[in-house]
Amino acid sequence: MDLNPTPQERQFRDELRAWLEAHAPRDWEARQSAPDSREASMEARFAFLRDWQRQVYEGGWAGLSWPKQYGGRGATLMEKAIFTEEMARIGAPPLPGILGLELVGPTLIAFGSEAQKQRYLAKILSGAEIWCQGFSEPNAGSDLAALRTEATLDGDCFVVTGQKVWTSYGWAADWCELVVRTDSAAEKHKGLTVLLVDMHTPGVEVRPLRQMTGETEFNELFFEEVRVPVANVVGRVNDGWNVALGTLAHERALLGAGLQITFKRQFTRLVELAHRLDRNGRPAAEDPVIRQKLAQCYAEIEIMRLNQLRAISRVMETGKPGPEGSIQKIFWSELNQRFQQIAMELLGPYGQLTRGSEFAFDEGQWAFTWLRARGNTIEAGTSEIQRNIVGHFVLGLPKSY
């Protein structure tokens, strides 16, 4: 693995930086920390983000690693990682169609029919249609293959009944990549099928799940005799487990590419606060325990960066994500929880203050990120499941059931 950028990669970064400097909204972070931002409706904020994704698409920067024939740029995964880093560096708004861009789109390119690619991919790139991922259920989270949402064939449609949970962007989604059980008599991994479901179909209900951060980032989905055309099957009927694994592999492989920059920015801010806050009559930055913990965070952020490069190198070599994605998922999720805990120790009582308090640092960001980090080791595959994957596929240990 060569850590030095190639001339092509340097040119790519320079071109991207110039475009972001000219087009990226520079007030996104200010919008997020403004006193009235909580009162702004999710719909209004989402409309702003969809317009931003349209600009990214028109600039030729959406779906970077997708094949050019499907509207992508045909860029390398290293260039894709550079894009994510530069977006985080400049503080650009997130792309609201991220699940379509990173999960559903690549899945359709790998498993979808040509008709499906022509119908869906362009609208995923532009943000004209937003996607969610209907995988987890109340009793089928870590053991996804135990899902019970059923789809029975009725003429040229499947009729879907069941429930999904922890669905990101469910409230905003136009379409859902849904995993259903189509053969209840088959082994649990072999009776599954992936369907593309129009979220505006009669019988689909979305309910918000309010988190302890106060947000309703996740949703429950209910399907009551929802009719889905057979043409919306991705891959083959009863072979949905392999399709779902393809989606999950993309979810974990490059998830940390932009997080390292976000962590570095938060780390720099925390060091600034360590020089401002007193601990036992002197700046906290002079406390040897605080200094050691901050140094440990810095080292782990660098480890995360190198692990990400290793994961990208693996994909570029083999053409598909490997188990290194699970290593990275474990590392960044647990690193963030440790980092946020150190922030709480440094800030003391100030760290508990939320947005709206005149004494809160950074508009209460630290209280929010500490609470939100609790979910990192659960979402996108729990740490327990990721360790099973690493143990079996990386270390060659027997499967854990």
Provide a descriptive summary of the structure in words:
The structure is a single chain. The chain is an alpha+beta fold. The chain has 3 domains: 7-96, Acyl-CoA dehydrogenase/oxidase, N-terminal domain (Butyryl-Coa Dehydrogenase, subunit A, domain 1), CATH 1.10.540; 131-239, Butyryl-CoA Dehydrogenase, subunit A, domain 2; 254-394, Butyryl-CoA Dehydrogenase, subunit A, domain 3 (Up-down Bundle). It is built from 12 helices and 10 strands. The protein has helices spanning 7-23, 28-33, 42-58, 77-90, 98-111, 114-126, 240-253, 259-276, 288-318, 324-347, 365-372, 383-394; strands spanning 131-134, 150-154, 157-168, 175-181, 192-198, 204-209, 218-229, 233-234, 278-279, 282-283. It has a 4-stranded mixed β-sheet with strand order 1-4-5-8. Strand 2 and strand 3 form a beta hairpin. It is globular and about 75 Å long. The chain starts with 6 loop residues before the first helix and ends in a 7-residue tail after the last helix. 37% of the residues are buried. The model has no long low-confidence stretch (mean pLDDT 89).
